[in-house]
Design goal:
Lipocalin, elongated, ten-stranded antiparallel sheet, mainly beta, 163 residues, 1 helix, 10 strands
């Protein structure tokens, strides 16, 4: 009986040291992105978005707004952006993880954001909701056929605001 109690205690302790449970973004949480780098009109992209994260890390985008479509070559956003956010958190509820996000344009251009630097904290008593999220990474623009965009890349920072 003592062995079973010790094994259960060990299982609880190990589970508390880290988790791969899905981390949720709270309703009303907005992510603001600032992107630097690029060339001419193939630069200066910025956007706001809201999303939720499914248990497999896939993002469900509820809103997306390109903030400067008239000053970039990108024009209008085509199909809804897609992405993933895969994070774990430690016993201090600090988040680490990876992020990918793809923004297609109506012209066939594609901006892809990737990151291995996702930070923030998680509230485990409130369905593993993320707060203070910051994602830092790189972006790349692949122009579509006949597009005025050129191949470009740079860095980005996304910051979670509101809850």
């Amino acid at each position: 009986m003592k062995e079973i109690a010790i094994l259960l205690l060990l299982a609880v302790m190990v589970n508390g040291c880290g988790s791969s449970s899905a981390v949720q973004t709270p309703s009303g949480s907005v992510w603001q992105s600032a992107m630097s780098g690029g060339v001419g009109t193939s630069s200066g992209f910025s956007f706001n978005t809201q999303f939720t994260v499914s248990s497999n890390g896939a993002l469900s985008i509820s809103t997306f707004e390109l903030l400067n479509p008239k000053t970039t070559c990108f024009g209008t956003v085509g199909p809804t952006p897609t992405g993933t956010l895969n994070v774990t958190f430690n016993s201090a509820d600090q988040v680490t993880g990876t992020f990918s996000f793809t923004i297609p344009s109506g012209n066939g251009d594609t901006v892809t954001l990737t990151s291995t630097s996702v930070t923030g904290t998680v509230n485990t008593s409130n369905y593993n909701t993320l707060s203070g999220g910051i994602i830092v990474g790189t972006w790349a623009l692949a122009p579509g056929s006949g597009s005025s965009c050129v191949v470009a890349s740079g860095t980005f920072t996304m910051t979670q605001t509101g809850t």
